[in-house]
Fold this protein.
Amino acid sequence: MKMDMSQYLDVFLEESKEHLESLNQKLLDWEKNSGDIAALNEIFRAAHTLKGMSSTMGFEDLADLTHHMENILSDLKEGLLEVNPQVVDILFQCFDRLQLIIERIESNGSGEMDNSELIMILESIKGGGFQTTAPAADNGQDLKPEEILTTQHSNTTSFDFNQYDMTVMREAASRNFASIYIRLFVDPGCLMKSVRAFMVFKVLEEDSEIIKSFPPASDIEEGKFSEEIELLVITASSIKELEGRLNAISEIKVREIKEINFASLASGSQQETNGDQISSSQDVLKESKEQKGHKVKQTVRVDIERLDILMNLVGELVMHKGRLEQIGASSKIDELNETIEQIDRISGDLQSVVMKVRMVPVEQVFNRFPRMVRDLAKELNKEVDFLIEGKETELDRTVIDEIGDPLVHLLRNAVDHGVESPQERLKRGKPQKATVILRARHEGNNVYIEVEDDGAGINIKRTLEKAVEKGIISAKEAEVISPEEASQILFSPGFSTTENITDVSGRGVGLDVVKTKIESLSGEIFVDSRPGQGTRFRIKLPLTLAIIQALMISVHDEIYAIPLGSVDETTMIKNEDIKMVQNQEVIVLRGNVLPLFRLASLLEIPGEAAANEEEMYVVIVRKGERQIGLVVDTLIGQQEIVIKSLGKILAGIPGIAGAIVAGDGFVRLIIDIATLF
Amino acid sequence: MDNTVNLQSEEGFTHNDGIQVVAFRLGKEEYAVDILHVQEIVRLLSITRVPRSAKHIEGVVNLRGNIVPIINLHKRFSIESAGEEEDKRIVVFQYDDLKAGIIVDEVSEVLALNNNAIEETDKVYSSMSSDFIKGIARVDDRLFLLLDLQKIIE
């Protein structure tokens, strides 16, 4: 009978992707530092879990490929196979194939794919004479205990031995019993972990005594452990016997088994002079406990759609709260106003909780880049050190989903156009290896994401030539243009500085697409560059797109909302403060000359201004690095607004970011400073 | 048994022999749209102008928390608005996943149109606005212009 697995498919897909991601990441780590046993172990573990999951789900091709991969990994782990770039490359190729299969399963449910060519390569690089078809999980059994002992670091256990334990072990030693440390791995897919654990105890208690366990025995019996159990037993059997018996239990695998070097422990604690050793073993304990704490953290997977619905509902609530506040203000009933204050507080809390739930670390997007940059650099014969900073920075889910493509573009750009070849770098007296940094950080209500390289920088001269050639600016304009403005040309539609279209970054899409995307997320993008020293792209994004603070203003009979994120300050000026420079109205604010625009004429607002022509309100807004003054009739006040889209029919109007339903039930429009002028 | 037969014959009528339309007035002309696209008919709501939008977009309204764009066909077809302010309505329709409203001078009735009463436009009608007309239906002495909603949204 075939079990219906379809209900687990979603979970399977999601978890497979996570494992793949970790495979890629750890392999990169390991490639950088092949002594990093922890990374290799992690790779092995992820591959093994993936194999188990896929064969349970009946995706045999997936399981088969993973199985062969696992053989190689296990050989690497045991030192039977030398690390070399070919092996790493083939492993990466396998990961790509796994990804492909998983994507296929996602799109049409079938994971069938012929992987024989990869499997052949895997077989051929496998350690000489080790022609086995047995699962890698059993390979450990073939090893002699001595070998295991030598490959493991001594005494890296989660246990802190107290005086009592020492006495017990000493006693045991005197009767020729061995004290053995065992680390067991329980298959994460295992449904009744407590039962497996019970069987472990039963097997061990035949002729041994368990004197310590981590987590504590009571937790293990209740199944409260992640995937590893550590045990300390006193036994008359040999290590090999014990290991064989334990491995015979299904879904249980011995990770590590070794005899406790009793003498060194005893001397350490008895003399209490070797403080280093004690503290270091305590560190290990702490570290492994933290790791475990991280793993068993309780989480729930929630469909993102449900979160969106929740967010919409909170939005409605905030909107109606605004309406209530208006009613409250005009009715002047104390009781009502007190209640409204309560509702205000609760809806505020609710909003921030929902918002937090929607926040995801940028890590999710960033994690796929190291691999991409590595492959790209290899393809282009460049040497690139790729650094990621601030990957724990959180952003709204909706932004995270959209930000990936623009970043891919910028990173490709950096590696392809920004960074020079190693020879050229040496010639210019730079380190041979280039550095590309992807950085995320919080600042106020914004998140900044930067892509920085230490390459050649933007060639302003060539940029201008190209721009003139393509008719983006005239030759005359090119003569007077400032370097900052010149670099902005990069974002013009139809501009690309590479002559040849490579399949790396010249895919017919320019930086203008990146800019459009960022602006559609209510963000901004800037570039600065120093010739010969590098280029930096900076993306500024709002923390969230759903509910923001806005300044409500009125012009004639119309009311608009300006997102507070773009407002620097408001001020009041007199008619005579306005000067004319080159046919443009300007004002001087604390020594700075700012261009002045009248919202009424920008938006062709019909009607007459209020009578008071002497003085006028100016909202100082920020567009990129520039400050601009906007003349309005009145400032109504600050308000929390729920942004709604104007819909497809009215999408893309420059200067309008969306609409809100105001407290009075009227629709008001939100001004988009980035595209207003 | 009888019931089933009845049902079939009714369905047969609507599908094979014609369509149901909502008929309304713009100025003095009578128009109609397929009732399957009409979501609701509401009294005039206060409309917020959208700057920098196309001329025939009157603005947007708040329809129970949803933002709905309002199309002014009077402007599109250069028709003078006529009739009592009191009779004006917004016909809200849904086409594919787009929702929009049309301001009409009066909603007259819901009609069942026989297919053979509908004529193609190019035979009888040719003007600038014919692009937005799918056909013309003749009922007794009255003429109804059937709107092509897809073109109107574009």
